[in-house]
Amino acid sequence: MTLRRISLLLALAKAYNTLAQVFANGPFQLHVGSVANTSIDGHAYPCLDTLGLCYEQGVMTLPSKGAGVYFTSRAQADYTTGYLSWHWADNGAVGKNGIAMYGPVGLVYDPGTNVAVPIFNQTGSAEVLGFDSTSGNLMMTGIDDTTMSNSSNSGNSITLSQPYRYYNNWYLCNVQLEEGLAPELLISWVLGANLGRLPTNPTCQRINITIEAIAMGYGGTSSS
Predict the structure, then answer these.
(1) How many angstroms separate the CA atoms of 181 and 220, rounded?
(2) What span, in angstroms and rounded, lies between the C-alpha atoms of 151 and 133?
(3) Vertex 172, ends 168 and 176: CA angle to 5°?
(4) Is residue 11 included in any domain, yes or no?
């Protein structure tokens, strides 16, 4: 985890203690589409068994008012830097498994593949996300270490000229998260896709994730 990411998460956690400084912006839905495959036109929602991001074709039928994705950030209607969670409703209602909310989203890795899977309730390793102001695509922050080099005058010290960037490595893949579980069609993240590396999983298809405008909330609800 980068120092920038740690700083942001600590700042958000600290802001929770002062309540008014943090906003859970939403609710809204995540639209999933693909330039390469126009038949992919649906939405993402939390899988009840694995808490991954499942995919379903078409527009989601909301179970109740206030249900959907929330983007936690440090300002009302700010969707540029923060993290994602899911609420089943704004009135305390719970989902089918008795849970009222999930969050935040973090990546789960396996050393045998370059396909990582975003999972809810990763409070200790939440990913810093943001929606691009031009394209509207959901992006994730990460280190650009392609310019890393050993400093010639300081021994083993390391410098980064561009340490912090946003990436769009989202794919839709059939993934088996655990032995004994059937594969699921999940929103996934391919490590190194921004460098042209292909997913090791042959079922993966490139996607873009955006806010579903017709299901957008009123812009921001304070955590207080």
Answers:
(1) 37
(2) 35
(3) 125
(4) yes
pLDDT in tens, 173-184: 999 988 888 899
Is residue 149 in a domain?
Answer: no
Q: Which residues of the chain have pLDDT under 70?
A: 1-20, 62-64, 89-100, 150-163, 213-224
| Total H helices, total E strands in the chain | 1, 18
- As a whole number of angstroms, the distance between CA 103 and CA 85 comes to 4
Strand partners, 54: 45, 186
Q: How far apart are CA 106 and CA 17, in angstroms?
A: 22
Q: Residue 54 falls within a domain, yes or no? A: yes
User: How many structural domains is the chain composed of?
Assistant: 1
From start to end of 75-157, where are the E strands? 83-87, 101-102, 106-108, 115-119, 129-131, 138-142, 149-150
Whether 148 maps to a domain, the answer reads no
Domain containing 174: what range?
3-143+156-222
Q: How many Å apart are CA 42 and CA 208, to the nearest integer?
A: 11
* pTM metric for this prediction: 0.80
